[in-house]
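Quick sanity check, Ribokinase:
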Amino acid sequence: MILSNAGGQVLVAGSANVDYVVRAPHIPTPGETVLGGDLTIVPGGKGANQAVAAARSSGAATVMLAALGNDAAAETLERSLAGAGVLLHAVRSNSPTGAALITVSETGENAITVAPGANMALAPTDLPDLAGIAWLVLQLETPIDTVTAFAQAARTAGVKVLLNTAPARALPAELLAAVDVLVANEEELACVAGEDGSIADRLATIGTSIAIVTLGARGSCALANGVFHLQPAFGVRAIDTTAAGDTFCGALAGALGQGQLLPEAMRFASAAAALATTRAGAQSSIPVRDEVERLIAGGIVDPTASADLAAYCGVTVQPS
């Protein structure tokens, strides 16, 4: 289990988008037009969301590396990151700031289309000095060659790397070799590890020290150096799942960076992600640390949830 590198800063390197969100009765099927509600414009992007979650939910000292355009959308993101206490290291691009088109259904599920824009300008040479950085958090909304170069540079510098494999895609072997913690949802896990075998079997094929799959309302399952850890989801009334996965990743990195053991960090991240689903929006939905700690202290745990989660994942050993 990874326990080192506590006390340093969290650097999130990745995407920053402005989200254009419409709530609708359901997510349209191909060829279908659905009348929705009013358009909401909010700051988002997987990287920026994870940076806000690390800073706001865990209180970790957090730096964000992102490529932004010279436009009003960039100003929206700059204000949001600063408001969460994130120190922004911006790379300027002639391309427009990234954008995401999001439809949210009445049940809280979402469908997202991303226009990467300036995010694709982030280059391997843009990585800042890693002095004082304990954890580097990466996603896949920037060029894969850049993500790989960042991970390899961090590994060389002794910085721990957390990779969120979103959006779903196959990963080059040289990237996986530089990752300490991999976080994927069920669809993303299938892209990385295939669809054969149980979730537990697939986690075992990845090869990183820690591999975690998030399973929405079921919870999450981790394989850490041969030991499985199960974290059932907290029971909340979800209205919008946008940024729930990003909140999990950012809160997890922040908790690990502050020295929490993996089971504690997963519980903390799960609580933060659950709270994010109870509010609309991306960065605006991410809770503060006091809220997360209150949910952990008072959250009702279904006594059968761990057994159900173990059965779903194919875990036959007792969780620690």
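Posting the structure with no commentary besides this: The chain has one domain: 9-26+37-313.
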